[in-house]
Amino acid sequence: MKSLKNLNFEKIHNVGIRVDFNVPIDKNFKITDKTRLDRAKDTINFIKNKQCNILLLSHFGRPKESFDDKYSFSKLIDQFEEILGLKLNFISYENFLENGLNQFNHNRSTVTLLENIRFFDGEIKNDLSFSKSFTDNLDLYVNEAFSASHRLHSSVNQMVINILSTPGFNFEKEIKAINDIRKSQKKKLAIIGGSKISTKINTLLFLTTSCSDIFIGGAMANNFLKYNKFNVSSSLIEEGAERMIEMIYSSAKQTGCKIHLPVDVMLDSDQSVLVNELDKNTEFKILDIADSSHIVLENLVKKSDIILWNGPMGMIEDHKFSKGSINLSHLLAKSQADVVIGGGDTILAINMAKEKFEDFYFVSTAGGAFLEALEDKELPGIEALKADL
Fold first, then answer.
1. What interhelical angle do 345-353 and 323-334 show, nearest 10?
2. How far apart are CA 204 and CA 211, in angstroms?
3. Domain chopping of the chain, boundaries
4. Which of 37, 110, 128, 302 keeps 20 to 30 A from 266, CA to CA?
């Protein structure tokens, strides 16, 4: 895998960068978290300073039609320019269909953003002809969208294969952080939250082979509590989770990994209750971990050298049930361990806690791609970068 810093730019003028501008927005199209834009700055600015002509490609959401206004970059480009500190030329959907990349080719040493690349059928199909309509106009292609690298899409895989390609700076950091977790022999703790076991079963099975301890939080923990004969009433659970939980406990037993669950929880009534005192005659929902569970986490963190956190400890979209995740953010920010944050809503928790990303060893902007790479799966985006031209 080539490195961007080691390239000779003497004959490189036109550069495509696959960025991840799939940012969260509110109902007024206001960007609510600019982390992914900030992470792309170093790579964009490095190439811009080489006096190159830059074409930015990104997806936004999962549009089902060829064009859908609610997934258009046209409503976001002013915010992109402000956050990136750049003037962006914009190639609209219609313009690209009619003129291809003519607008990009006629502007030297500028930065151009193409409309949402998932509007184009060739992207999802990883189509060679579609990919060459881009790479035939480029001297270099850079993948700075690690979070999309588990997708077998044209901008992630085929474009990378077509021409000289490298990972972006943040992409390299993502890979290094994952390798550090996978290969280190230091004492490791995984803190895993979220809602579904099925989406993280392979990750959890891998973690039982590499971690000394795993703490399960979020709605996912409801399934483990129920499996262990605690009453969870009408709390969110995943049907058919029993077999997966058995697999996790079996693997943990073989490797000596200890599985930890919340010892107390916050209910929808705003009450804090020990899990062994949950009333079988009362209707309730478990929506967060509580103080005694935080003490369990404190003790686990103190004895760990490397910590992976992925997924919130409660329903953080409701501030009443965000305390567990916010307190965990504070705890890990102060820890002397190497803390790797695994993307998704975990980043939201850090921002809600007003902690700085610099206080952690690494904060990933990826969700599914981060977990799949952690399992040592062959991701299309990474595999393509390994192929030397």
1. 80
2. 10
3. 4-167, 174-374
4. 302
The per-residue pLDDT for 388 is: 60
246 burial via Cβ count (<10 Å: 0-12, 13-18, 19+): exposed
Question: Which H/E stretch holds residue 51?
Answer: none
Whose tokens are 């895998």? That residue is: 1
89 within 8 A of 112, measured Cβ to Cβ: yes
* Residues 369, 342: Cα–Cα separation, whole Å: 10
Residue type present at position 239? E
Region of 279 (left: φ > 0; alpha: ψ -120 to 50; beta: rest) is beta
Closest CA to 150 of 370, 387, 386, 389: 370
Count other Cβ atoms within 10 Å, centred on residue 319: 10
| DSSP SS3 for 381 | helix
Among 78-82, 169-173, 177-181, 191-195, the range scoring the smallest mean pLDDT is 177-181
φ, ψ (nearest 5 deg) of residue 127:
-75, 130
Per-residue confidence band for 107, with pLDDT thresholds at 50, 70 and 90: low
CATH match of 174-374 with 3.40.50.1260: yes
What is the pLDDT averaged over residues 147-176? Answer: 95
Contact 71, 65 (CB under 8 A): no
- Can you tell me the distance from the alpha carbon of 384 to that of 11, in angstroms, rounded to the nearest whole number? 23
Q: Which amino acid is present at 303? A: K
Report the C-alpha gap between 267 and 236 in whole angstroms. Answer: 12
Please check whether residue 164 is in contact with residue 139, taking contact to mean a CB–CB distance below 8 angstroms. yes
Token digits for 272?
């804090």
Sign of CA dihedral 334, 335, 337, 343: negative
Instruction: Classify domain 4-167 at the CATH topology level.
Output: Rossmann fold (3.40.50)
b/e burial code for range 207-222 (CB count within 10 A of at least 16 → b):
bbebbbbbbbbbbbbb
DSSP bridge pairs for 265: 273, 289
Q: Can you give the C-alpha Rg of the chain in angstroms?
A: 23
User: For residue 225, which of 185, 182, 284 has the smallest C-alpha distance?
Assistant: 284
Place of tokens 């029993």: 242
